[in-house]
Structure prediction request, 135 residues.
Amino acid sequence: MKTVITYGTFDILHRGHINLLRRARALGDRLIVGLSSDEFNAGKHKSSLLNYENRKVVLESIRYVDYVFPEENWEQKLTDIKDYEASIFVMGDDWEGKFDFLKDLCEVVYLPRTAAISTTEIKNSLNPEFDAIKN
Ligand code: C2G
Prediction:
């Protein structure tokens, strides 16, 4: 059983997230996801529109995702990989190199990000005032 592990906020799910999850799942037999808690997001200076419970229900409904657990800090990856016996760690390549320290524990794979879509852009497009400021 080859376990693939990844982490993220996964707020307002879009095809960039789905592309990542689909490709990650294809690398093994199951995909588990460390979903950033609301508190951890605050630490990442990211405010998600949907809270953890909402984001968890949505993520668990995706066919590529087998299990979702909370990501509460940066350090837990070291123990998560051991506890879940993950053999591949996957992130989008906006994180290229940032998690190479995990290479002692498992394979580290950075996948190309899906261009031209992000939760930030979606959130900004929902906020008409933003365009006024931007232009
Ligand atoms: N992603 C992508 N293409 C996009 C947007 C996101 O491939 N257009 C990928 C990111 O690279 C990441 C995953 O989707 O691997 C989740 O993205 P976010 O929810 O933005 O996660 P992030 O805030 O990067 O948190 O410990 C790691 C952090 O929790 C990652």
In short: The mean pLDDT is 93. The longest helix spans residues 15-25.
